[in-house]
Design a protein that fits this description.
TIM Barrel, 10 helices, about 40% helix, globular
Length: about 260
Amino acid sequence: MIFISTNFLEPEHFSKIFDYIPYIQQKLDIPIGIEIFPFWDTYGFEDQIIDNLTRLKEHLISFHDPYQTDHTSLPESDNYNKTLKDFIKTLSYNRILHGNHIVYHHNNCKIERLNKSRLLDASLKNLSQIKDLCHNFGTEILVENAGTLVESTMLLNQEEFEHFCFSNDCNVLIDIGHAYCNQWDIEKLIHNLGTKIKAYHIHNNYGDDSHNRIKDGGLNYKSFLAVFSQITPCAKYIFEYSSRCQCTPEDFCEDIQFLLSHQC
């Protein structure tokens, strides 16, 4: 199943997603889901969700962690309270729209050697609460390999991330762009996590987290797409492009066709 993240749109133009999805579905003759990237702090964003609830219910929906969440914040801090409030709002809309899953960033902040253990401890405690909330809302949570070396936000290296997912019994979304710019062994990552991987964020880069189109970067997707489809045949593919790509509906059609043509 193919999804398109609304991350490629400026939040004030969220409703333009309906200029894309029907065109792509008709052109390719396949269903296309929508991953909603929530910008709850942007004026008018939530109004666009409310105004388009009926249209959104016509599509498969998933949600990303809200923008600027901080799951490494200390309990009862302002950041913690805001993160929890925004996540619960996201869960509520996900339930209204019969959403598929919510992507979870275990970290979004800068990492220093002296604060890593404290941040990891806070992240683990907050994950436990978030998992309980998702269970109560009947929503699947997928932990993403969040953070990048270039931005000093990578809390867990590849081995630590794999251990984190197994020890906390988490299903996973692998962000291929993050894995590439963090110099992870992507094929080994897919083999090790196996069917814990339920979805992929698809984008490319030249060593930073620029969220370019699938063929605009240093990662040659051709060599990996067969591996993805062999080991995780039921995983979803979510195109998570930046607004800087200025993608047209035809651009998405081209990139989706490229992906589908290089699977097994």
